[in-house]
Specification:
single chain; 236 residues; alpha/beta; Rossmann fold; two-stranded antiparallel ribbon; 6 helices; 10 strands
C-alpha cells in the first residue's frame, strides 16, 4: 500500500490531502473522502486506507487548511472550523471542488471514474458537491447533514446514497423527507438507507455521547459499509 500527503490549493488557501492506493501499473477509480467537523484526522485517513484496500484510490481531502485540525469532543473548536463553510455553501463548494481537481490529477487515478463520500459535516460537503453539478459518478453521505444552503443548485449528475441513523437528532425525519423530495424533483438516482435505533456518528467507535446524539453502532456500521461497497461496485 502506498501512502502520501499531497499539497494542493483552493485560491490562497493551502490544503493537504492524505492519498492511499495499492501499487499498480493501471489507473484506478478515485474516491474522495470528506472528513467530519474535527478535520482531516485519523478517522478520515483510515477511511482512505479502507477504500484503497478495495482497489480504489482513497483521497482524504482537507476542508479547513493545511495543519488546521479540531479535536475530539471540543464542540466550540470544531464548530468554529465548520460553521464558516456550512453557512457559506458557495465557499464550501469551491473548497471541495478544489479537492476534486487535485484528486483527478493524481497519476494513479482514472479521472473518468470518481466518487465522493463524507462523514457528518463531510456528508454535507459531498451532497454540496453533487448539488454543484460536479461531474462525478456518485456521492455517499454517511451520517451526514442534509439541509441545503442558499446557493442555487446545478443539475445533479451523480447518483446519491445516504446512510442515515433514524434517531439522529441533527437530521430529523422532516429533513430526510425534504432531501428525498429535493432529489426526486431533480431527477436524481437516489437512495436513503435509514437504520433504526441509530444515532449520529454511528460508524465512529469513539462516539459515545447519547446526550449530544453521537453513539457508535457496530451493526449499523457493518450494514453501512456493505451498502457503500455495493454502491461503489455499481457506479464503477
Amino acid at each position: 500500500m502506498i501512502t502520501q500527503h499531497l499539497d494542493y490549493q483552493d485560491g490562497d488557501t493551502a490544503l493537504e490531502a492524505y492519498v492511499v492506493y495499492q501499487e499498480t501499473d493501471t489507473q484506478r477509480p478515485l474516491v474522495l473522502i470528506a472528513h467530519d467537523w474535527s478535520g482531516r484526522r485519523e478517522f478520515a485517513c483510515k477511511a482512505a486506507e479502507r477504500i484503497a484496500a478495495q482497489g480504489y484510490v482513497g483521497f482524504a481531502l482537507d476542508m479547513y487548511g493545511k495543519g488546521v485540525f479540531g479535536a475530539d469532543g471540543d464542540v466550540e473548536l470544531n464548530s468554529s472550523l465548520m460553521n464558516p463553510l456550512a453557512s457559506d455553501r458557495a465557499v464550501l463548494r469551491q473548497r471541495i471542488r478544489a479537492a476534486l481537481v487535485a484528486g483527478r490529477n493524481v497519476p494513479q487515478v482514472d479521472a473518468t471514474r470518481v466518487a465522493a463520500m463524507g462523514y457528518c459535516f463531510g456528508g454535507m460537503c459531498v451532497l454540496e458537491l453533487a448539488r454543484s453539478g460536479a461531474d462525478v459518478l456518485g456521492v455517499v453521505s454517511i451520517h451526514g447533514i442534509f439541509s441545503p444552503g442558499e446557493v442555487v443548485n446545478e443539475p445533479i449528475k451523480a447518483k446519491v446514497l445516504c446512510l442515515h441513523g433514524h434517531d439522529d437528532p441533527m437530521v430529523p425525519p422532516e429533513q430526510v423527507l425534504a432531501l428525498q423530495t429535493e432529489m426526486s424533483e431533480a431527477g436524481v438516482d437516489w437512495q436513503v438507507h435509514a437504520y433504526g435505533g441509530t444515532m449520529h456518528a454511528f460508524t465512529n467507535p469513539g462516539a459515545n455521547n447519547p446526550d449530544f446524539g453521537t453513539v457508535y453502532s457496530a451493526v449499523a456500521e457493518t450494514r453501512a459499509y456493505q451498502a457503500l461497497s455495493n454502491f461503489l461496485e455499481e457506479i464503477f
